[in-house]
C-alpha cells in the first residue's frame, strides 16, 4: 500500500480535505473526479457574454461557522452580497421567507396591520417558525394566514420540487424557509454571506493548487483503488460505493433551461420563485451575483425531477424515515472500513449547504490527524 491519499470528488468536501491533508500533514493526495471540471455542483464559469454562470443553479455562500469562513477566506475574497428571494404570489412580487413586510405586499393594509399585531402578540420578534408548526393556530385570523402561506408559498412549490406535498416531506426541509416574524427580508441571516469574487471554480482551484495535490478529471472511481492508497476519502454516493447492495438511495434531481436575452436585465432579482405558477420552481438570473455589467442577460428556469442513475445528476438526498434507515445500513458498512471515509451530500446522504460540507471536512481532518 502506498503512502498516498485518494480523494474521490473535487467539490467543496473533497477540496477541503485534500488541502488539509496536503498542507497540514504534508502527505500526497490524488483527487479524482468523474466530471470534466472541479468544484462539483458549485461549478461556475464566465460565458461568452462575460456573465458568471452557476451551471448547477444559484450557489450563495452563507455561514455562521467561524472556522469555515476563515479557511475559505484564504482562497477567495467574498463580496457583501446578501441574498433575497422574490416570489410571485397572486401576481405580486414579494420577499420570502414570508415575513412581516410580506403581509403589507399581499394583503390590504387593514388586514395586514391586524395580522401583524396578532403575530407579534403570539410570537417573539425575530422568531423563525416552520410552516408545519405555524399551521397550529387557534386564532381565526392566524389560521387564515397559515393556510394562505401554506397554499401560496409551500404547497405547489414543494410538490414541484419534491413530487410530494409539504406534509410528506421531512419537516427540516420546509423549515429551511420558515415564516419569519421579522422585517428582515434576507433569505439567510448568517453572519458571513457572499459570492467569491472570482467565482467558486477559481476558489476550489486555489484550494487544490498545492504541490502535494494532483487532480485527475474524467476519472471515475473504481473499487480496486481502495487497496492502493493509504486513505480514501469518498464524496460520491455512498450506495454506489457499496454497489447498491442494500438498494438505491433515492435522490431528487433538477435541470435547467437556459435562455439569453438581448437586454440588460430580465427580472428584478437574482432568483424569482414561482410557487403557484408554471412547472418550473424558480428562475435564476446569474449576473446579479457579481454585478456583471453586460448588455445581455442569461436566465435559467429550474425544473425538478426524479434522479435516475446514468440519466441525470443526484442533487438532493430525500429525507424520510425509510431513506434514513437505508442510509444507516450503508453507514454501518462504511464504519467497518478502516481507511475509507465518507463526506458530503452524497457520501453522507445529508442535505448539506456548502459551508456544512466544508465544516464536515474540517471536522473529519481533526479526527484523522
Ligand atoms: N420552499 C417552498 N417554497 C418556496 C421556497 C422553498 O415551498 O418558495 C420549500 C421547498 O420544499 C424547498 C424547501 O422549502 O425544497 C427548501 O428551500 P431552499 O430554498 O432552502 O432549497 P434549495 O435552495 O436548497 O433548493
Rounded to an integer in angstroms, the radius of gyration calculated over CA atoms is: 22 Å
Strand/helix succession: EHEEEEHEEHHEHHHEEHEEHEEEEEHEHH
Which distinct ligands sit in these coordinates? uridine-5'-diphosphate
The fraction of residues assigned to DSSP E strands is 15-25%
Descriptive overview:
The structure is a single chain. Helix content is 33%, strand content 20%. It contains 12 helices and 18 strands. It has helices at 12-24, 66-72, 100-106, 109-122, 131-134, 140-162, 171-174, 200-208, 238-241, 321-336, 344-347, 354-368; strands spanning 5-8, 29-32, 44-46, 52-54, 61-63, 85-89, 92-96, 128-129, 179-180, 192-194, 213-216, 231-234, 251-261, 271-273, 282-285, 297-306, 316-317, 340-342. The strands form 5 sheets. The chain has a 7-stranded mixed β-sheet with strand order 7-6-14-15-16-13-17. Strands 11-2-1-12-18 form a 5-stranded parallel β-sheet, covered by helices on one side. A hairpin with an 8-residue loop joins strand 14 (271-273) and strand 15. The mean pLDDT is 97. The chain binds uridine-5'-diphosphate. Uridine-5'-diphosphate binds at residues 87, 96, 153-154, 157-158, 161, 169, 173-174, 176-177, 273, 275.
In brief, what are we looking at here?
It is built from twelve helices and 18 strands.
Describe this protein with a few key phrases.
single chain; about 375 residues; alpha/beta; five-stranded parallel beta sheet; 12 helices; about 35% helix; binds uridine-5'-diphosphate
Amino acid at each position: 500500500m502506498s503512502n498516498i491519499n485518494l480523494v474521490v470528488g473535487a467539490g467543496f468536501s473533497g477540496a477541503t480535505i485534500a488541502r488539509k491533508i496536503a498542507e497540514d500533514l504534508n502527505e500526497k493526495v490524488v483527487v479524482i473526479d468523474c466530471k470534466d471540471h472541479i468544484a462539483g455542483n458549485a461549478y461556475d464559469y464566465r460565458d461568452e457574454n462575460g456573465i458568471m454562470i452557476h451551471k448547477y443553479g444559484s450557489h450563495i455562500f452563507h455561514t455562521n461557522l467561524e472556522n469555515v469562513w476563515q479557511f475559505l477566506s484564504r482562497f477567495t475574497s467574498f463580496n457583501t452580497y446578501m441574498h433575497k428571494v422574490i416570489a410571485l404570489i397572486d401576481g405580486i412580487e414579494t420577499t420570502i421567507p414570508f415575513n412581516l413586510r410580506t403581509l403589507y405586499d399581499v394583503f390590504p393594509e387593514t388586514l395586514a396591520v391586524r395580522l401583524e399585531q396578532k403575530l407579534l402578540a403570539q410570537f417573539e420578534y425575530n422568531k423563525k417558525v416552520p410552516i408545519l408548526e405555524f399551521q397550529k393556530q387557534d386564532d381565526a385570523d392566524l389560521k387564515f394566514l397559515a393556510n394562505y402561506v401554506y397554499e401560496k408559498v409551500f404547497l405547489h412549490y414543494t410538490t414541484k420540487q419534491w413530487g410530494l406535498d409539504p406534509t410528506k416531506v421531512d419537516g427540516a426541509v420546509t423549515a429551511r424557509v420558515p415564516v419569519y416574524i421579522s422585517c428582515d427580508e434576507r433569505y439567510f441571516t448568517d453572519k458571513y454571506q457572499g459570492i467569491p469574487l472570482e467565482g467558486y471554480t477559481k476558489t476550489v482551484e486555489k484550494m487544490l493548487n498545492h504541490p502535494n495535490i494532483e487532480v485527475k478529471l474524467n476519472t471515475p472511481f473504481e473499487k480496486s483503488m481502495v487497496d492502493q492508497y493509504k486513505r480514501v476519502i469518498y464524496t460520491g454516493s455512498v450506495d454506489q460505493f457499496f454497489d447498491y447492495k442494500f438498494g438505491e438511495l433515492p435522490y431528487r434531481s433538477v435541470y435547467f433551461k437556459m435562455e439569453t436575452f438581448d437586454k440588460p436585465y430580465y427580472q428584478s432579482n437574482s432568483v424569482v420563485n414561482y410557487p403557484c405558477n408554471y412547472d418550473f420552481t424558480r428562475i435564476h438570473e446569474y449576473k446579479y451575483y457579481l454585478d456583471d455589467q453586460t448588455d445581455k442577460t442569461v436566465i435559467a428556469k429550474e425544473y425538478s425531477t426524479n434522479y435516475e442513475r446514468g440519466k441525470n445528476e443526484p442533487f438532493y438526498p430525500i429525507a424520510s424515515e425509510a431513506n434514513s434507515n437505508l442510509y444507516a445500513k450503508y453507514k454501518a458498512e462504511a464504519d467497518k472500513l478502516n481507511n475509507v471515509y465518507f463526506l458530503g451530500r452524497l457520501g453522507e446522504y445529508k442535505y448539506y449547504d456548502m459551508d456544512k460540507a466544508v465544516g464536515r471536512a474540517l471536522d473529519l481532518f481533526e479526527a484523522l490527524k
